[in-house]
Amino acid sequence: xxxxxxxxxxxxxxxxxxxxxxxxxxxxxxxxxxxxxxxxxxxxxxxxxxxxxxxxxxxxxxxxxxxxxxxxxxxxxxxxxxxxxxxxxxxxxxxxxxxxxxxxxxxxxxxxxxxxxxxxxxxx
Length: 124
Fold this sequence. Notes:
The protein is α/β, with parallel strands linked by helices. The chain has a domain at 38-121: NAD(P)-binding Rossmann-like Domain (Rossmann fold, 3-Layer(aba) Sandwich), CATH 3.40.50.720. It has helices at 16-36, 48-60, 75-79, 89-93, 110-121; strands spanning 2-7, 10-15, 39-44, 64-70, 84-86, 100-103. It has a 4-stranded parallel beta sheet. A two-stranded antiparallel sheet has the order 1-2. Strand 1 and strand 2 (10-15) form a beta hairpin. The chain starts with a strand and ends with a helix. 24% of the residues are buried.
């Protein structure tokens, strides 16, 4: 059964059964991908967190491929020329090649973007 919670002033709905199903699916998918190939990863936001912490780690880790970055500026393309750079979040999550989304945007929109990415993941 789902529960209603309040996250940063927004009412959100969390379904424990869907979360468990998603966790199992994600765990299986990550195990399968780790054995076969690098996980194609997209980063949403290229501010301090995305630029300094997440992108460098993902780009050098053997288990991940920095596939795409959502950024409004040109710095992402200059720093990671092999990565695709999108101007909007929907382009990233609608890309069927993306297997993992790392959200590095301001906190106020984390929940909304995470929910959208999770819903899209259920259609892969």
